[in-house]
Amino acid sequence: MLTQSTTEKLYNQDFCLWVETTVQQLQLKQFETIDWENLIEEIKDLSGSQKRALESLLSRLLEHLLKIGYWKSEYQDNSNHWKGEIRAFRKQIKKLLKVSPSLRPYLEDIFEECYQDAREIVADVTALSIDTFPMSPIASLEQVLDENWLPKTCT
């Protein structure tokens, strides 16, 4: 029979088996053997990983919007690829917000920071001066997420 101490050791030895064991313990209502400390930490981390995913998707979306709007020398060869990436990032963000609508305020909170990060990254990738890209976001969050909106292109 498993004990709480055994499941705590399992957490460090085989995470996947620990998860399966914990699920089984919960289903069987074997609460006395559950590794509560690690279970609580893992549950807390779930929202953190959703936030990190949302931040990454928003940053990547903004990077591609900046590329399509300002990278003149690559526009003709890459604009279709960038548009596809923009659509994919928007869809992923919308799906994440659909399952966790409470993340919407977080998205609003990180919008400016993500834009500044994207601005710096795109300046590095394109070798264009950082001053090429506006200091303020090129659009509102609503526009950035709107599947029908793209920045005015550089061509």
Regions with pLDDT < 50 over 5+ consecutive residues? none
Topology as H/E string?
HHHHHH
Largest sheet: none
By secondary-structure content and strand pairing, the structural class works out as mainly alpha
Q: What's the helical proportion of residues?
A: over 70%
State the shape.
elongated
Question: Average pLDDT, to the nearest integer?
Answer: 94
What is the tally of beta strands? 0
Rg over CA atoms: 22 Å
Distance between termini?
69 Å
| Fraction of residues in β-strands | under 5%
Number of helices: 6
Explain what the structure shows.
This protein has 155 residues and is an all-alpha fold. The protein contains six helices and no strands. It has helices at 4-13, 15-27, 36-70, 72-99, 104-126, 141-145. The chain is elongated. 19% of the residues are buried. The mean pLDDT is 94.
What is the strand and helix layout of this fold?
Elements: H1 4-13, H2 15-27, H3 36-70, H4 72-99, H5 104-126, H6 141-145
Helix pairs in contact: 1-2, 3-4, 3-5
Task: Please supply descriptive tags for the structure shown above.
155 residues, mainly alpha
How would you sum up this structure in a few lines?
By secondary structure, this protein is an all-alpha fold. The chain has helices at 4-13, 15-27, 36-70, 72-99, 104-126, 141-145.
